[in-house]
């Protein structure tokens, strides 16, 4: 940790609580602007529910389009939190500390957003209730409980509950801190939320053990969520390009690629907007970029395997689908953009340390990744459905309507709006993690050289 | 800001808070003692070494005889070679994966792995045995064009014998990359042997140290080379598994299209690599008296890795299984009938227990992981499980008659193939040959890297932390 500046606890509090105690000037207009976009989005959703799915571009045989693509995309983004927070916490990676809270938050809000898409895609969302209560097993007229379409909400619901708990447990010490620095209704709010946090040794021990246990518990959930989403597609032999055994890990690694990139985007924004230069430092971007090089390369390997084993079977429909995806207009353009933005441009740039330490370049390259990853999901879902297949009496090419594009834009505004709203009341960088890291960091003198060192407790 | 092992001599030993012989805590060792003890470990237990070398040597000859006799009997019958393919896959799985234990944590700057780097890198040299076993398998493997038609393969329109050539190319490159990793990281220790041992070991050290004097430039180059060989080794390993699984498993079963299978194979290779490293470290402690070098910290960390990789193993297995089981196309049903509930169910059920269920249940307990014997027992179970898993896959795959190779899916599930006498000879011989290779390597060079241990001593310092103990671990850039 070469770039660290030693800050005392008072200064740490002052800087990191500036979002809550001294709201920045840009905050209100930005939130209001996003609020308007969010409101318009809700009106459009209401319009679509009122008129039916005819206002979208969906028609036979392309019955899954932009909504399901965006659903998969947001589930993917949600993998950021657990990847950064749980895995790095368990492996005691010191550089995780300023990033964890924002990553966990992104998980919660993107999951909330993801859940909305299948609901609105159903056309008449209120009918979803009939799927759940009462669940009729006996006559078999209700959906198959073993179906991934049922397991999806179960997995995502579990992940959302777990992530929220994970976020809340890590927030407790900071809530205690805020309670002691506020007055009036805010003090009452923080007092209730802090659950009597006093920071005594027993509470710290429980909080630490709780964090580790939740980290370990969240990992299998994190993997299962996107695997189950992938099985929505993979267990369907009828659609070429979907029935592949690699889909589960392929989706998970893609989700990590996309989620961690989203964290990078968010970290750059946090550093610029709240001026947290002492906490979110180039070394954190450097570490994340190195992690992303590994993740992205693994993801590319999975992409390669998926493609090779699709044409390996030498089945004519499968080969025709790949020709459509790679060589036919406009899919070839999308394929090119997907490959360039998802891997070639960002990873090519991240190989250079000067890029990894440049916040602006990291911001743009991480945005590129998510453009590429959204396109990847689109390329998986739509071309397979849009091919002419036997026994389908009607087919049409799919072109997302303005309603669908507006709802996509709404989802981005909605997540950003929720994040900004959260930042008004709770710190985005965990205070206690920062203070703890100040204690754990030291140096060892070897010969004439001072080498940065980390303190590790022993059993 | 690179630290330098040449500084080892300047370090003054701070106080230890854990005595020698105790497994927990941090033990402080003097650089000179490290050198002496570890060089002496190459000569320890001479009688036992001789006895074991003879036994393993004889068993290796039995294995060679088994291969020759089997070749004479059935070189034209592919279905007879399933167990040989399984043992080749097992050796690739174990020997190929172990060096990653030396590579991955080092890239993540994990210091606990330092005493294990030599041990795990050496397993790559088991590739010599794997390549030797591949010779008859390649001779039996059908060409790309059989009975006038081209069979399914990852090589598509390539020349007929591409799979036959590519497997040797991949395995040869893997062996060379492993050798490069092993040799590069051993150069400072060869220099130590040159300067501090006697007899033929001194001569070996002198010729292999290649003028190593520990200059700053040499250290910098060494680190760079280790990083490069490590990365290259990882990439070649994945490629080798890709080629091996595609040509020697999927390619011989009609309708088996399984994109995750190469990754499943690679994943289990990492699991097996961790397992075999644990067992070898346990043996080194037990028989070479290296308790102060291979400590609880190493077993605890490896135990966690073994636990994690066992979970990943089942995840990769299930990812494939659910797609076949739920898909229910004719090819999917044939896969389930063939590889799960079919002729090798006797290997599938114990394999599943030993590769996942038992290690998971065993290693989940913190008390088991924080011991030396706990992870070792888990590792033995895992290795047996993986041997059974390889038999399940390769014996099934190779039992398919070549006449069916052009079918869209497997119409008839073959009967169970049981090992014959030659198969037993080949299995025992191959495992003995691999063990013999390892035994011989560690008569030449210490099983624990001298310079890595010395550097670890420099980079860590016991400190008081609140009312307990802590270690300050340096993380040089």
Pick out its properties.
heterodimer; A: 459 residues; mainly alpha; Formate dehydrogenase/DMSO reductase fold; B: mainly alpha; two-stranded antiparallel ribbon; disordered N terminus
Give an overview in words.
The complex is a heterodimer of chains A (459) and B (477). Chain A is mainly alpha-helical and 459 residues long. Chain A has a single domain (9-454), classed as Formate dehydrogenase/DMSO reductase domain (Formate dehydrogenase/DMSO reductase fold, Up-down Bundle). Chain A has 18 helices and two strands. Chain A has a two-stranded antiparallel ribbon with strand order 1-2. In chain A, strand 1 (441-446) and strand 2 (449-457) form a beta hairpin. In chain A, helix 10 crosses helix 11 (247-274). The longest helix of chain A is centred in the middle third of the chain and has 34 residues, at 201-234. Chain A is globular. The mean pLDDT of chain A is 87. Chain B is mainly alpha-helical. Chain B has one domain (37-473). Chain B is 66% helix and 4% strand. Chain B has 17 helices and four strands. Chain B has helices at 31-40, 46-74, 82-97, 99-107, 117-122, 127-140, 162-196, 199-209, 216-248, 261-288, 296-327, 330-339, 345-363, 366-369, 373-398, 421-444, 450-459; strands spanning 145-146, 149-150, 460-465, 468-474. In chain B, the strands form two sheets. Chain B has a two-stranded antiparallel sheet. The longest helix of chain B is centred in the middle third of the chain and has 35 residues, at 162-196. Chain B is globular and about 70 Å long. Chain B starts with 30 loop residues before the first helix and ends with a strand. The interface between A and B is large, with 43 and 55 residues. Strand 2 (449-457) of chain A pairs antiparallel with strand 4 (468-474) of chain B.
């Amino acid at each position: 940790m070469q770039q660290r500046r030693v800050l005392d606890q008072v200064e740490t509090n002052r800087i990191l609580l500036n979002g809550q105690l001294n709201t920045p000037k840009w905050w209100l207009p930005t939130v209001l602007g996003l609020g308007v976009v969010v409101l318009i989005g809700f009106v459009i959703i209401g319009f679509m529910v009122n008129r039916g799915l005819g206002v979208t571009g969906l028609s036979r045989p392309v019955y899954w389009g932009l909504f399901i693509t965006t659903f998969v995309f947001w589930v993917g983004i949600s993998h950021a939190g657990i990847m950064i927070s749980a895995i790095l916490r368990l492996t005691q990676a010191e550089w995780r500390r300023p990033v964890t809270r924002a990553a966990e938050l992104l998980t919660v809000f993107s999951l909330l957003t993801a859940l909305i898409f299948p609901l609105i895609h159903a056309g008449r969302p209120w009918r979803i209730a009939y799927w759940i209560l009462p669940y009729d097993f006996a006559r078999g007229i209700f959906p198959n409980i073993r179906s991934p379409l049922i397991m999806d909400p179960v997995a995502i619901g579990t992940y959302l509950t777990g992530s929220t708990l994970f976020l809340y447990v890590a927030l407790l010490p900071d809530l205690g801190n805020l309670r002691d620095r506020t007055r009036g209704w805010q003090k009452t709010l923080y007092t209730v939320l802090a659950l009597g946090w006093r920071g005594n040794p027993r509470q710290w021990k429980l909080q630490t053990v709780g964090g580790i246990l939740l980290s370990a518990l969240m990992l299998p959930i994190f993997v299962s969520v996107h695997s189950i989403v992938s099985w929505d597609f993979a267990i369907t032999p009828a659609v070429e390009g979907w029935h592949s055994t690699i889909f589960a890990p392929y989706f998970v690694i893609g989700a990590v690629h996309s989620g961690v990139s989203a964290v990078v985007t968010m970290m750059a924004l946090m550093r610029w907007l709240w001026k947290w230069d002492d906490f979110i430092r180039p070394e954190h971007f450097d570490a994340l970029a190195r992690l992303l090089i590994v993740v992205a390369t693994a993801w590319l390997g999975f992409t390669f395997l998926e493609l090779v084993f699709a044409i390996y079977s030498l089945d004519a429909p499968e080969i025709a689908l790949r020709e459509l995806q790679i060589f036919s207009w406009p899919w070839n353009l999308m394929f090119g953009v997907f490959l360039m933005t998802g891997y070639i441009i960002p990873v090519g740039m991240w190989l250079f340390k000067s890029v990894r330490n440049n916040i602006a370049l990291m911001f743009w390259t991480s945005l590129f990744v998510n453009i590429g990853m959204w396109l990847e999901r689109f390329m998986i879902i739509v071309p397979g459905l849009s091919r002419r297949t036997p026994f389908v009496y009607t087919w049409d090419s799919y072109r997302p309507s303005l309603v669908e594009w507006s709802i996509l834009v709404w989802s981005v505004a909605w997540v950003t709006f929720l994040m900004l709203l959260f930042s008004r009341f709770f710190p985005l960088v965990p205070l206690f993690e920062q203070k703890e890291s100040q204690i754990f960091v030291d140096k060892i003198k070897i010969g004439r050289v001072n080498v940065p060192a980390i303190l590790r407790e022993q059993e | 800001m690179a630290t330098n092992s040449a500084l080892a001599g300047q370090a003054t030993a701070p106080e230890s808070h854990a005595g020698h012989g105790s497994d927990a805590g941090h033990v402080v060792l003097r650089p000179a003692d490290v050198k002496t003890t570890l060089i002496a470990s190459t000569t320890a237990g001479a009688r036992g070494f001789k006895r074991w070398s003879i036994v393993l040597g004889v068993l290796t000859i039995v294995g060679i005889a088994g291969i020759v006799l089997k070749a004479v009997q059935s070189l034209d019958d592919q279905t007879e070679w399933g167990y040989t393919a399984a043992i080749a896959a097992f050796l690739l799985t174990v020997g190929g994966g172990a060096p990653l234990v030396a590579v991955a944590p080092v890239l993540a700057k994990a210091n606990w792995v330092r005493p294990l780097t030599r041990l795990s890198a050496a397993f790559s040299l088991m590739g010599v045995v794997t390549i030797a076993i591949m010779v008859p398998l390649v001779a039996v493997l059908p060409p790309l064009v059989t009975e006038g038609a081209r069979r399914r393969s990852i090589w598509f329109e390539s020349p007929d014998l591409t799979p036959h050539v590519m497997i040797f190319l991949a395995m040869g490159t893997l062996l060379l990359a492993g050798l490069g990793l092993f040799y590069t990281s051993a150069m400072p220790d060869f220099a130590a042997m040159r300067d501090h041992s006697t007899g033929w070991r001194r001569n070996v050290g002198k010729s292999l140290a290649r003028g190593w004097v520990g200059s700053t430039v040499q250290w910098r180059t060494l680190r760079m080379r280790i990083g490069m060989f490590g990365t290259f080794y990882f990439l070649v390993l994945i490629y080798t598994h890709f080629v091996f699984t595609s040509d020697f498993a999927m390619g011989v079963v009609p309708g088996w299209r399984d994109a995750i299978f190469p990754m499943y194979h690679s994943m289990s290779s990492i699991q097996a690599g961790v397992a075999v490293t644990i067992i070898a470290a346990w043996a080194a402690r037990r028989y070479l008296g290296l308790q102060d070098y291979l400590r609880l910290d190493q077993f605890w960390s490896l135990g966690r890795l073994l636990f994690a990789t066992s979970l990943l193993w089942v995840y990769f297995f299930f990812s494939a299984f659910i797609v076949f089981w739920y898909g229910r196309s004719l090819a999917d049903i044939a896969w389930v009938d063939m590889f799960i509930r079919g002729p090798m169910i006797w290997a599938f059920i114990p394999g599943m227990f030993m590769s996942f269920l038992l290690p998971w249940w065993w290693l989940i307990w913190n008390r088991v992981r924080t011991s030396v014997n706990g992870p070792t027992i888990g590792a033995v179970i895992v290795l047996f499980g993986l041997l059974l898993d390889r038999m399940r896959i390769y014996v099934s795959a190779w039992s398919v008659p070549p006449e069916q190779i052009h079918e869209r899916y497997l119409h008839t599930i073959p009967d169970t193939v049981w090992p014959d006498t030659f198969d037993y000879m080949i299995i025992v011989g191959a495992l003995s040959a691999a063990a013999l290779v390892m035994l011989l390597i560690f008569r030449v060079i210490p099983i624990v890297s001298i310079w890595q241990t010395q550097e670890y001593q420099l980079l860590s310092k016991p400190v008081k932390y609140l009312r307990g103990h802590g270690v300050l671990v340096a993380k040089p850039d």
